[in-house]
Each structure stands twice: as C-alpha cells, then as structure tokens.
Amino acid sequence: MALTTMDWLPNLEAQADEILALEAIFEGIFTSARIEPDASTSGHDSSATIVHRGTIRVDAMLPDGSGTLTLTLTAPKPAQPVGDDFVLRAKQRKRGSARKQLSAAVTAPVPLPSTTVEALPPVLLHFALPATYPSHALPTLSLSCAWLAESTLADLTSHVISTLDAPADANVQLYVAYEAARDALAVHLASLDALAASPAVYQMLVDHDRYTKQAEFDQHEFTCLICLSTHRGRAGMSLPGCAHVFCRSCLVPFYTMLVKEGMPMNVRCPHPQCAVAPVARPAAAAAGGSDAVDADPESALAAHPITDS
C-alpha cells in the first residue's frame, strides 16, 4: 500500500499514543525505539516500513499450587567414532568375542541430576510497528527465550498473533498481544511436569533462581535470632531446611567456637527449637581433630549443608 508522508501522520500519532500508554502501564518492562521514516519512500509502497520497534517483558509465573518446577538435565548425545577409533570399532564388530565384551562393558544409565526452581527468566515479546499500523496493518510479533524450545516459542507466537483484532483505528493491539502471551505462557507452564534442559540451560536456570532469591532476600530486613538486631538481608543468611535467619557476624563466631571446642558435629542451626538435626562429623575433622578445620572456620560454615551455597 502506497502511503505519502501525510498519510503517515495519523498512524504516527496513534503509535505515539499507544507507546506512551504502554510506558506507563509496563514501567520497567517495556522498551521502544522510534525509527524515522525515510522521506524517499514517499509515493512508493511503504507497507513494510517500520516506524517503531521494541520489547515487552513477559514474566514466567509458575502455577500457584506448587510454585516450583522440576528441572532435569538432558543426557548428552554420544560422540560418533571417527578416524582410527572408527576402524578399531569396525574390526571389533566383526569378532564375536569382541562383540560380547563390548556388550558386557555397557553399564546401567547413570541417573541424571534434577532440582526444583521457583523463578524462571522472562520471555520477551518483540514488536515492530509498520507505517500502516494501526489503520491498515497489524504489528509484527515474535517471542524469544533462552530456555524454551524453538517449537514452543513458534506455537506461542502463532497463538498470540491469532488473538489480534483486524486492523482498525484503535491502537490497543500491543496490550492485547501482551495479555495473550502472558496467558499462553502460564498455560504452558501449568502443563509441565518437568523441564528437560541442556547442561548450559540447566546451569543458567539454576543460577537465575539462586540470584532471584538472593536479590529478594537482600531487599528485606531481618532480625538475627542470636543478637536480636535488625539488619538488611545481604548481611545475613537464611538457612535452607529451616529458614531461620542469622547475621554472618554472629553465625561465624558461633560455628568457630564449636569447631575449636572439638564439636564440629554440632555445627547446625543455633535456634534452640530448630528441628534440623546436626550432621555427622566431617571425615577430615575426624581424622585430623579439630585442628584440621581451625584454620578456616568460614570454610566449615560454607561447606555445611544447611547454610546457603
């Protein structure tokens, strides 16, 4: 569709109004950039001319019931034999005894690690607004995410596009697209029993979950159950398993005292009513006495299974 510069103006104004409204609604999760139309396109087919580009962050919210997602590590694909190794294996396949030995060497599959996460990285909704939007065209949309399969992203994108209304003067298509992406993502997450991920994605998701929890913890105040003083979250630690919170300046001396008095097996949550049992004495301490860990009591604290990692 050929548009003149004058034809652009109503659409430019409508796009500016929509973006202004979205900046207010999605503060902190919305970005956009204006692309100045090329005057040389005046009088030519300008239906594909992009005027605005941007993204809207769609947070991945886990279902209210569990609030967690099981994350499993996918098995790496076995390497294909090449070169001399390939020739050797070919010779072995020709010998019956070698074939039996090769079969006997096959062991049971090793269980792959798994964990649970409570926070997932967001999905990004990318949009491009042509000069003919909103009067004669729809926005161009796509979704991107590092931890969802390409096929899943394609299905979600198709669903979002299908929810858009026919081109009209109304400029609410991006908000409709955001709601569709948010709802479709929620439905997809609710359908998952577990998420299988490659080693790189697995580690990324574990790190994101840890950093998200730590950032949330750092923003809140807590009362140390030893000194009874109030501190910011970053000054303390919440012990996994019982969630009792202490400041490091109290916890490290407490553990140091136990180690120096020959009681490393009592390194545990110091809350008198905590149900988390103390762990068995470390082998290194049992072999070398308390002197084996006296030099670095913070190492004992970091290595203890009920402290944060």
TrEMBL record:
Domain RWD: 17-188
Record-level Gene Ontology MF annotations: zinc ion binding
Keywords: Metal-binding, Zinc, Zinc-finger
Residue ranges the record marks as coiled coil: none
Domain RING-type per the UniProt entry, residue ranges: 224-270
Matching SUPFAM superfamilies: RING/U-box, UBC-like
Top-level lineage group: Eukaryota
Pfam families assigned: RWD (PF05773)
Cited InterPro entries: RWD_dom, UBQ-conjugating_enzyme/RWD, Znf_RING, Znf_RING/FYVE/PHD, Znf_RING_CS
Region feature (Disordered): 287-309
Annotated protein name in UniProt: RING-type domain-containing protein
Species: Allomyces macrogynus (strain ATCC 38327)
Lineage: Eukaryota, Fungi, Fungi incertae sedis, Blastocladiomycota, Blastocladiomycetes
